[in-house]
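Most newcomers find our protein records easier to grasp once they have seen one. Each record describes a single protein and holds just a pair of labelled lines. A learned vocabulary of local backbone shapes supplies the integers on the structure line. Nothing more is needed to start thinking about how sequence determines fold. The record below serves as our worked example for the rest of this section.
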Amino acid sequence: MNKHGWLIYQKQDAEQNNSFIKWFIDEAEKQNLKLSLILREEMTAGIIDNKRTVLINHKQVSLPDFAIVRTIDQMLSHFLEALEIRVFNRAAISEMCNNKARTHFHLNELSIPMVDTIFLGNEIKRIDPPIPYPVVLKEAAGRGGQQVYMIHNRQEWESRLMTAASGDLVIQSIDSIQLGKDVRVFIVGKEIVGAVLRNSTTDFRSNYKLGGTASWYPLNHTERKMIQSIINHFDFGMVGIDFLLDNDGRLLLNEIEDVVGSRTLSAVSNINILEKYVSHIKSGNPS
């Protein structure tokens, strides 16, 4: 009997990623897996009659063998795991990846190079940041280059602190980095699938969605060894590990993207990352 999985999206994201979703479902079918799109807005997850319960459109349904959560909802991931459903990415991975402070904290334990990074609770209002201007201020839960701000002086600093969303903040030095460039490394399970150099000549952020360009990035032996140390330590499903480049071209940790897309990889290579991902899911290896 073929295993059945849920591909969980919020409605708006599903509409924007229609072709990716179709590709995902087609790849699953090729490998004899049934994959159904489930909209988060149609799900009810909670305790009903003292039992953990999931409803779809207010109706009882058969639970899947696995769930691919393509939205940031760690409580939902924990809930599905408690029902003994295999979740990709796991709740613990999602929690780490979707908080930049936690990502840097945990990867520092592996001695991964990174710029000077300060963790700051949003409730703390400092007169000045604890590192010299200019600095980059990031909302720890921001994604896709959003909620990332270049701060040049005290006026910008105080203004931005007043408008930043509640939650943890990250402050980083930019003294030693090449602005507008980063390298995204695509990971499936324990495999380095490929890497892409993203570059912007108009913004200090290099994100493809923000108008940056992309080209294939050939990882050298030293870079591969460092990245492999990260993926050997964590049970990833599919993620993108993003690195800044210092002035000598060496990789410095930036963040890990949990709900990672593949536009840039598809633009610069013929790699079918979803074929690899579906194979990983089917293999039963940890996620």
About this structure: The two ends are 22 Å apart (CA to CA). The CA atoms of residues 134 and 175 lie 8 Å apart.
